[in-house]
Amino acid sequence: MEQKEKISGTQVSMLLFVVVTSTIIIYVPSFTASEAKESAWLAASIIPFAFGCLTLWVVYKLGSSFPTLTIFQSCEVIMGKFLGKSLGLTYVVFLLFMDVLVLREFSDFLNVTTLPLTPRIWLLTGIVVLATYGAYQGLEVIARAVQFILGIYLLGFTIVVLFALTNFEVGRLLPVMEDGLVPIIRGSIAPASWYGEICLLSVLFPFVKKPAELKKKGLIVLIAIALFVTIDVVMTLGVLGAGLTSAYTLSFWTLTRSIEIGEVAQRLESFLLVIWISGIIIKAAVLNNLICLGITQVFGRKTNVVLGIVAFLELFISANLGNVLLVNVILSSYWPPVGIVFELVIPTFLLVIRGVRDKFSSKVRGA
């Protein structure tokens, strides 16, 4: 399933914003508050933002070295055919499991909050069908869909935040850094892996009309994500306090349900559902598209049968991954280190190998 369409830098920035924030909005307040308590907003912003910037720089440098290749292809150029294809395949597996976790976040959230009697398999089947259809339509269609929903996405979040201000107390954010830097650093690991999802640029790079824009656009996206996440965590802490924020895995959802201003504002969780479900569908469609692209480039199979195979794998693995508690443990403890390795460590390794090879080649030519 080769990509032929081109998208603009602005479309990529919108796409990445929705991809990152759609999952982080629900889980990051609880994950950070469980470690950093009242300083959770620092754990969710400063260190993860720095990690995202470093990831962006490495991915941009790597992409600039191979502007017409995805990371699946550049792995083979840098590492040789066997090692390169093997590494490219591990990236496909990485994206597959990222997508599986996104699908489980979707089904578990709805099972816990609004559709407790609906069998998980039907929720998973619904989103897999939508994601597969989006992947089949291609990146350009997905990018246009993001342009359509982004305004609604931000409006829904803004409405929730404005109404939540009525229950907000600054004192719940104090004391800041009571236990020092170590809890903040521990609490920043999970959100850093989400910020690091900007590494998807390593696959999107060849499909951008003006790749030189990605450095600036990527930085703008990271700033927007940092502001979004900081507001998310600050509001949750200011309304619920650090204790309740860490106790409820879906703490931003709890905040939204707690908003009640007489007969004027009630049941505002519907706004959160709209922005969250639309964002999750977009993220699943993007990941599905990139997984299929990776498979076709690693194995050289240009057929839409790949879409069906990927859909079956996603559905089978996500349906058998375990219960809600296990998925939360994976998201908070096990997945972040894995994400950091694929988002920053391996691209940095590839960039270093590329630099060493170029330097060695220039010396040989000069000899």
Which keywords apply here?
367 residues, mainly alpha, Amino acid/polyamine transporter I, 78% helix
CATH hierarchy class name: Mainly Alpha
How many discrete domains? 1
What is the percentage of strand-forming residues?
A: under 5%
Number of helices: 14
Mean pLDDT, nearest integer? 90
- Computed over alpha carbons, the radius of gyration is 21 Å
Shape: globular
Tell me the helix content.
Answer: over 70%
User: What would you say the CATH architecture is?
Assistant: Up-down Bundle
Which series of helices and strands comes N to C?
A: HHHHHHHHHHHHHH
**Number of strand elements:** 0
Q: CATH superfamily name?
A: Amino acid/polyamine transporter I
**CATH fold field value:** Amino acid/polyamine transporter I
User: Could you give a short account of the major beta sheet?
Assistant: none
Can you tell me the residue ranges where pLDDT is under 50 for at least 5 consecutive residues?
none
Report the span from N to C terminus: 44 Å
Structural class based on helices, strands and sheet pairing: mainly alpha
